[in-house]
């Protein structure tokens, strides 16, 4: 997520050095933006892709803010990754259906699909086709991991084991507090709550005010209001305490109904996403092996490759070619 200038500069030097011998070969045509194995992303294809994305107002706004060069590099990087994943899918014999992509998008964004597309366009410069391609790539990584036996974390037994691990950290207090005029009333209210916790809302309604919760609330221990946090956390379920707090203008009755833990089914979506992230990482390693095996070259006018991603370059071979052209023109003039 962070961009460090010095490593980028070093990588640019290495790319320039590695690219120089290629000038004599066939993989440096000026009308090719990138070579990905046997496939090409032509300059015309890139320009068409940029033009197509700019028809989306949200993407156009992003492009205007980021600048032409940066947006073109973003689009080219997406086209390169599309070819890399296509090569990985073909080589490893994996296919992701469009219906699978649609279902995953609906799962991710639920009832907010259109809003999500708009947000991604405005904030990341991604068109709808880009979003669908990124989701396809995610599903491909997970399928690759599953085929290689690297998706065990998604098994039911593994999910339940992970649930048992994280359950203690997800405790929530079900608690309430109400402010009454004096200590005698506080003691009476606390006795009533201890005997019949279900009466909390009824009793709270008798003492409305800014320092009374009308109904029991549920929060993580570290989200409990600071003046009462220590005592609420120390109280056993079904018990409470009283405390004279000057700023409330009375005596506060605090009550802890129970400690609540989310069920396995409640937590399943998060557990599955966490496990899927591990599968993503394993699948990404398999895609990286394919990527490394491809003869991946980018026209340096668009940037340089670092760890398989396209980033801003330092001029590189393009600058050297321009210098050579100027020298040739100068010689011809003489």
3D structure, described in words:
- It is a single chain.
- This protein has 334 residues and is α+β, with helices and mostly antiparallel strands.
- It is 57% helix and 14% strand.
- The chain contains 13 helices and 9 strands.
- The chain has a 4-stranded antiparallel sheet, sandwiched between helices. A 3-stranded antiparallel sheet has the order 2-1-7.
- The longest helix has 30 residues, at 264-293.
- The relative contact order is 0.15.
Short description, anyone?
The chain is α+β, with helices and mostly antiparallel strands.
| Second-tier CATH architecture of the largest domain | Orthogonal Bundle
Gyration radius over CA: 30 Å
CATH overall fold name of the largest domain: Triger factor/SurA peptide-binding fold
Structural class: alpha+beta
Strand order of the largest sheet: 4-3-6-5
Q: Please estimate the helix content.
A: 55-70%
Major beta sheet summary: 4 strands, antiparallel
First and last CA, distance: 51 Å
Number of helices: 13
Average pLDDT works out at 81
Q: In percent, how much strand structure appears in the residues?
A: 5-15%
Number of domains: 2
Shape: elongated
| Unreliable stretches | 1-26, 315-334
Keywords:
334 residues; alpha+beta; Triger factor/SurA peptide-binding fold; Chitinase A, domain 3; 2 domains; 4-stranded antiparallel beta sheet; 3-stranded antiparallel beta sheet; 13 helices; 9 strands; 14% strand; elongated
């Amino acid at each position: 997520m962070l961009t460090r200038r010095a490593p980028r500069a070093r990588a640019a030097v290495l790319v320039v050095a590695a690219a120089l011998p290629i000038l004599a070969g066939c993989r440096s045509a000026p009308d090719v933006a990138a070579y990905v194995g046997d496939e090409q992303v032509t300059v015309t294809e890139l320009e068409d892709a940029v033009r197509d994305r700019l028809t989306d107002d949200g993407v156009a706004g992003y492009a205007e803010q980021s600048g032409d060069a940066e947006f073109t590099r973003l689009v080219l990087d997406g086209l390169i990754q599309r070819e890399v994943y296509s090569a990985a899918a073909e080589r490893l014999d994996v296919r992701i259906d469009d219906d699978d992509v649609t279902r995953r998008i609906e799962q991710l964004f639920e009832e907010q699909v259109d809003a999500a597309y708009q947000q991604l366009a405005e904030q990341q410069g991604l068109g709808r086709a880009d979003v669908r391609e990124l989701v396809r790539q995610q599903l491909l990584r997970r399928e690759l991991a599953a085929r290689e036996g690297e998706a065990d974390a998604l098994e039911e037994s593994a999910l339940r084991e992970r649930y048992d691990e994280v359950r203690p950290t997800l405790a929530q207090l079900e608690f309430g507090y109400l402010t009454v005029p004096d200590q005698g009333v506080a003691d009476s209210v606390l006795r009533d709550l201890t005997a019949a916790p279900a009466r909390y809302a009824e009793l709270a309604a008798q003492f409305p005010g800014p320092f009374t919760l009308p109904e029991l609330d549920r929060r993580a221990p570290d989200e409990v209001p600071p003046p009462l946090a220590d005592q609420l956390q120390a109280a056993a379920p079904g018990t409470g305490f009283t405390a004279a707090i000057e700023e409330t203008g009375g005596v506060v009755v605090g009550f802890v109904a129970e400690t609540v833990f989310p069920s396995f089914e409640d937590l399943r979506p998060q557990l599955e996403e966490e496990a899927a992230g591990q599968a993503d990482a394993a699948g990404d390693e398999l895609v990286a092996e394919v990527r490394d095996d491809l003869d991946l070259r980018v026209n340096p006018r668009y940037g340089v490759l670092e760890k398989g991603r396209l980033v801003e370059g330092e001029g590189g071979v393009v600058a050297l070619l321009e210098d050579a052209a100027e020298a040739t023109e100068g010689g011809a003039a003489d």
